[in-house]
Every structure is written in C-alpha cells, then in structure tokens.
Amino acid sequence: MALDPEFPSDDPIDDVTPTITPEEIGADCVRNPIWPSEKVTELLLLWLRKHFVAGKIENENLRDRIWVNNETTPIIIATSAEWKPTNSNQRPAILVQAHDQIPLIRGIDNRLIGGSGNEAARLRYEAHWQGMHIIQCIGGREGEAYALAGEVASDILKFQHVIRSYLGFRRFRIERIGSRMKYEEHKETWMVPISITYEYPIMWRVKRTDAEDIADILLELDNN
Fold first, then answer.
1. How far apart are CA 156 and CA 219, in angstroms?
2. Which H or E element spans position 152?
3. Which of 40, 49, 109, 110 is buried most, with the most CB atoms less than 10 Å from its CB?
4. Phi and psi for 91 in degrees, rounded to 5?
C-alpha cells in the first residue's frame, strides 16, 4: 500500500502492517535481553514473506512474484546461506544476511550514573550494541534487482518505526542502498544490497553476591 506522507492513511496501522507475533520469531527472544542477530534475521524473513503476497506488492512489474512456502515459489526469500544459485532456476531472490554486532562504549565501564543513592549509581550498567543486516535483492534481468530493492526498501522505510518499537530497539533504519553489481557466484544475475543498521541497549545490575564472587576470583589469582 502506498502512503502519502502529507495525507497519511486513516486506516489503523494493523491494516497496513504485516502481523508478526512473538510466537512466530520464538518466545525466547522476547525474554532474552540480548537480541542475537539470528532473531533479527528471522523477523526480516517473516516481514518480507508477508509483503510478497497478492495485493501488497506495489510495483506492477513484480506482482507475479508471489512467495509461497514450497520449492516452486516464483521468488525465493531466504537467508544467504540457504540460497543455492545452481538450484534457483534463474528465479529472483531476496536474501537476508547477518553481519557483525558491535558493542558501543558509553561512559566509564558502561556505568549508569543516576538513581537514588551511591550504591544505585555504582552498580547499574548499560551497554549498547550496534548491528547490521544486509538484504540482497537478486534478479535475472538487469532492471529486476533494482525493482526488488525499491520494493523492499519502500516497505521497510514506511514501517521501520513499527519494527523498531516492536523490537524495543533504540534505532532501526535503512543505512544505504548499494549500487547494482553482478552477483559473484552466478554471473547471469544482478544484485542490489540494502544495508540495515540497528542499535539496542542491555541493562544490568551487579549484585553484592556478584561483587563477592569477583573479589574471590581476583584474590585466588593473586595467590597463584
């Protein structure tokens, strides 16, 4: 669905946003304070598969690229590790690939300054992680990779704030759309990469028992 920023839709957001429940991406990731990159990969795959269905594809040249959950699907939506160019039969593909998760240092020892009392400020910590995923849009025709990249980027751009809020991230956005290139593993296909970056915090508190364990370890090291 096309959204005009000056004339936003009056429809509820649920009417235009793919519905993804915690159960679909694994309930453990909702409880886990550290989001592993595999869970972001899984969410992106679900999001893309729910977009490439009848009635949701905006580009009229791609409306026959309906994803179905079997080997005859007209478009492949998978991880880059799952895709085999020799078995693709020249079908277009959207591949999701996780990249590095980088810790960002905030303050001294990731220490949170604030709270009530000296102990609260001394024992509370927060670390930020920055991650990246790349979505590879692959087409057998020269213009198809660009068309796929435009379709994918348009949908994520409109709803990246919804994804960010759902994940509980501080940031989730399209960083760049790369230039078209020949796909290295299959010279008859073209690929356009979309880089997505995100940032999320982890908060923890060092309890007195943890401090005592650390002191015991350091004392044992000194004695050795």
1. 52
2. helix 144-167
3. 40
4. -75, 150
- All residues at 6 or more sequence positions from 73 whose CB lies less than 8 Å from its CB, including other chains: 66, 67, 91
**Contact (Cβ atoms closer than 8 angstroms) between residue 95 and residue 135:** yes
For the chain, where are the E strands, in sequence order? 76-79, 93-104, 124-139, 171-177, 181-182, 190-205
Summarize pLDDT for 100-146 with one digit per residue, the tens.
888 887 777 776 665 555 554 456 777 888 999 999 999 977 689 99
Q: How many CA atoms lie within 13 A of 36 on its CB side?
A: 9
Find out whether 74 and 111 touch, Cβ atoms under 8 Å: no
The predicted structure's pLDDT at residue 33: 47
Q: What is the pTM of this model?
A: 0.73
Q: Report DSSP letters for 37-83, one per residue.
A: HHHHHHHHHHHHHHHSSTTT---GGGTT----SSTT-SSEEEETTT-
Handedness of CA 33, 37, 38, 39 (dihedral sign): positive
Q: What is the mean pLDDT of residues 76-92?
A: 84
